[in-house]
Design brief:
This protein is α+β, with helices and mostly antiparallel strands. Helix content is 26%, strand content 29%. The chain is built from five helices and twelve strands. The chain has helices at 23-39, 99-106, 109-116, 120-141, 228-235, and strands at residues 10-18, 46-50, 56-60, 65-66, 68-73, 76-82, 87-93, 163-165, 172-175, 183-190, 196-204, 208-211. A five-stranded mixed beta sheet has the order 5-6-1-11-12, with helices on one face. A hairpin with a 4-residue loop joins strand 3 (56-60) and strand 4 (65-66). The longest helix has 22 residues, at 120-141. The N and C termini lie far apart (36 Å).
């Protein structure tokens, strides 16, 4: 696919794929797909590597680079790219978990209290929405969850506008574009000066690619696995 960004329009493109085998290879393919689409070069001329600090990096043979972000869970790989500036993405699979206990351990006290007041079904989903938002914002900022990233407050994901400013982080916005009902997806951007559009792309398996029938778009100025106990314990220390 050779989909160039529309001039003057800040857009985040999100590609989703499912890996039956090597997840790393699918990630590289999606990153090359993003680079080819947004840098306007054949995918064979797109390089994929790591920037200082370990962030994924996509570059064309003419030296141009593309801000990207990667997340994966249970064989699902998500790549977000934005020519207009830093971007972060995170994905989790919807599942049962002890949301109240985990929030009290990891989140800001006000967030934990807000979650505790939710009904059980909403509480589990909103815990994951907050978690993915924190991850996506950390990636967009380039800090991950270090230095209190899990305590960084997120806008409540309880309706209203899709993409919201992050409290205490000027110029940063985060939201949850609708997609696969089994997944929770968060996208964040930093430094948007005008409207940002979020477009979901689908990549089925390893080879086929097509635009999702459901694309989230907004005119807002947006910035746009395993055993739970071991996973949350390890990631909570980042």
């Amino acid at each position: 696919m050779n989909q160039l960004p529309v001039p003057g329009r800040d857009t985040v493109y999100v590609w989703t794929g499912r890996a039956a085998g090597d997840q790393r290879e699918l990630t590289r393919r999606l990153l090359r797909r993003a680079g080819g689409a947004l840098l306007g070069r054949p995918e064979a001329e797109i390089g994929v590597g790591r920037a200082p600090g370990g962030r994924p990096e996509v570059h064309a043979d003419d030296g141009r680079t593309l801000p990207v972000s990667v997340s994966h869970v249970d064989g699902v790989v998500v790549v977000a790219a934005r020519a207009g500036g830093p971007v972060g993405v995170d994905v989790e699979r919807r599942r049962r978990l002890p949301a109240t206990a985990l929030a009290r351990r990891w989140y800001d006290p006000d967030e934990a209290a807000w979650l505790a007041a939710r009904d059980e079904t909403a509480r589990e989903l909103d815990f994951l929405r907050l978690w993915t938002a924190k991850e996506a914002v950390g990636k967009a900022l380039g800090t991950g969850l270090r230095d209190g990233g899990l305590r960084r407050r997120m806008p409540p994901p309880d309706g209203g506008e899709l993409l919201r400013p992050v409290p205490g982080c000027p110029g940063v916005r985060v939201g949850h574009p609708a997609g696969d009902a089994c997944l929770v997806l968060a996208v964040a951007v930093v430094g948007a000066t005008g409207p940002v559009e979020v477009v979901l792309e689908q990549r089925a398996g390893h080879d086929a690619a097509s635009r999702s029938a459901v694309a989230e778009r907004t005119s807002l100025p947006v910035v746009v696995r395993g055993n739970w106990s071991s996973r949350w314990r390890v990631r909570g220390r980042l």
